[in-house]
Design goal:
about 500 residues, single chain, about 5% strand, 24 helices
Length: about 500
């Protein structure tokens, strides 16, 4: 069996396991990488080179800065103004969506949603508005904002580094994605706020909390993100009460409170947990285990002494990259010691800020993507696509690349999709007479169109429980914005990058 056939079969098996959802994505990717090493498809000397890949390092740096901004309290004045806003539901949805969009351009998508999600729920409670009206638009906005900058989302960093590895290539600039991304993000935010939000405005507000003793105080709600330390475990095995005096009063899912015996219920990503106990201890438990708050009361244990350090360091790092002085991973890394010395975050918080499942996933898939190129499998797949698209206009070819990438990202992962698709589409440049930049931008656009399923992006899962959404709701709200992104973004790419 040829190397081309082996790598193709290996990736198809991995893709099937990804779609099944029975195993963690990082475990599948790492196992596939080890299998590629055993088969000799990836040289042993470079088998784990992905862990030092500039794109992987850049993602880790962005996660750390996002966490620092999140815990620093710099955005508290904005939070207070939004909470007290007198705007009507439609305009308020747009403001919340646009806020998430703007934040996610310069920080991790999940971090941006983590800031806006509690505000959205608080406003919904104050105004007696169903939170379903806010949450899908806010989640979609937090995904769209990443399209605007180099550091906005992992696919942009991956594709930028692949571009640098091409003959005579160099990384994308900090705002080189902005002409396409900003147009799509702003129009997408408008759609999400004024159209998608109205799809759920007629739903009656239902109580989402399990029945608990109303006389008990100190209850706070948290959501379980993908890859959280308690995912796959039961309350009985966690022993929060023994360790910190914190009780899990209930678990709420999209269809309502869990009615099975609580102690034996396995916690899933997207679950909403009702924790009761001392506010400080509850917040400490949430921080230790990686839970995201759905309420803002009493959640910040300690406020950094220098909250200005994080935005100042981030601005200086972006300036160094924009001026071409240093690549993005070095620019960000230079300021990490400053953040620690300025006590903007502790070393423990620094390490906890890194989503290691994402790092392992990316570091495993990048060598596999290179193996597609080295074995000739990428060229074979590209020749098949080129034959099918021969004679078509550039925008038709790019629209096909966009559709393929979008379909893959909605069942896989945006970063994984970029790592797999880029080696396949780059050889299409010459036969289809389009630039490599146009192809890379199209992959970036499609990889971020994770709107059709709740598993397409972590942010979709995070709002599914609090918004009481069904899986079909993401399809209803997501297909028009996906179609609009393709119809607006692809012609813009053809016009700008040809």
């Amino acid at each position: 069996m040829s190397d081309q056939t082996q790598i193709t079969i290996l990736l198809l098996v991995a893709l099937g396991l990804f779609v099944s959802g029975r195993l963690r994505q990082d475990l599948i990717a790492f196992s596939a990488l080890c299998a590629a090493g055993l088969l000799g498809l990836v040289p042993h000397e470079t088998l784990f080179s992905g862990f030092g890949h500039p794109a992987v390092v850049s993602v880790a740096m962005v996660l750390i800065f996002s966490k620092t901004l999140q815990i620093g309290g710099v955005l508290d004045p904005l939070v207070e103004r939004l909470s007290a806003s007198p705007l009507g539901p439609r305009r308020l949805t747009f403001v919340l969506t646009l806020t998430a969009t703007g934040l996610s351009a310069f920080m991790n998508n999940v971090g941006a949603l983590a800031l806006v999600l509690p505000i959205s729920l608080e406003i919904a409670a104050r105004r007696d508005i169903n939170p379903a009206r806010f949450l899908i638009p806010v989640a979609f906005g937090s995904i769209l904002g990443g399209l605007c900058t180099l550091i906005g989302t992992p696919p942009n960093l991956i594709l930028s580094n692949l571009r640098a590895g091409l003959p005579g290539g160099k990384p994308f600039g900090m705002f080189e994605f902005a002409p396409v991304g900003a147009m799509v993000a702003v129009t997408g935010a408008l759609w999400s706020a004024f159209v998608a939000g109205r799809l759920f405005s007629g739903r009656e507000t239902e109580p989402s909390e399990p029945e608990v003793d109303p006389s008990r105080s100190g209850s706070l709600d948290y959501v379980v993100p993908v890859g959280c330390r308690i995912e796959g475990r039961s309350p009985a095995s966690l022993r929060f009460h023994t360790r910190a005096g914190v009780d899990i009063l209930g678990i709420v899912r999209a269809r309502g409170p869990v009615t099975n015996p609580l102690e034996d219920t396995v916690v899933r990503a997207g679950d909403r947990l009702v924790l009761h106990g001392d506010f400080d201890r509850t917040a400490e438990v949430a921080q230790t285990y990686g839970l995201l708050p759905l309420e803002r009361q009493g959640l910040r244990l300690t406020k950094p002494r220098t909250p200005w350090a994080a935005p100042l360091c981030l601005a200086m790092a972006l300036l160094l990259t924009t001026l071409g002085v240093f690549p993005i991973q070095l620019s960000l890394a230079l300021f990490l010691p400053v953040l620690v010395l300025a006590r903007s975050l502790t070393m423990r918080q620094l390490y906890e800020a890194i989503d290691w499942s994402t790092i392992v996933l990316l570091a495993s898939l990048l060598p596999l993507g290179q193996a597609l190129v080295d074995t000739g499998a990428a060229d074979s797949l590209s020749e098949t696509l080129a034959t099918q698209l021969a004679g078509e206009a550039a925008w038709v070819a790019l629209l096909a690349v966009f559709a393929t990438t979008t379909a893959l990202t909605n069942v896989l992962n945006n970063a994984a999709t970029a790592a797999v698709m880029a080696p396949v589409v780059l050889p299409l440049a010459e036969p289809l007479n389009v630039s490599t930049d146009a192809l890379l931008m199209t992959v970036a656009l499609g990889a971020s169109c994770a709107f059709l399923t709740p598993i397409a992006h972590q942010n979709n899962l995070l709002v599914m429980g609090p918004g009481r959404y069904r899986p079909v709701d993401f399809l209803r709200a997501g297909w028009p914005i996906t179609l609009w992104t393709g119809l607006v973004g692809v012609p813009t790419i053809v016009w700008l990058f040809g």
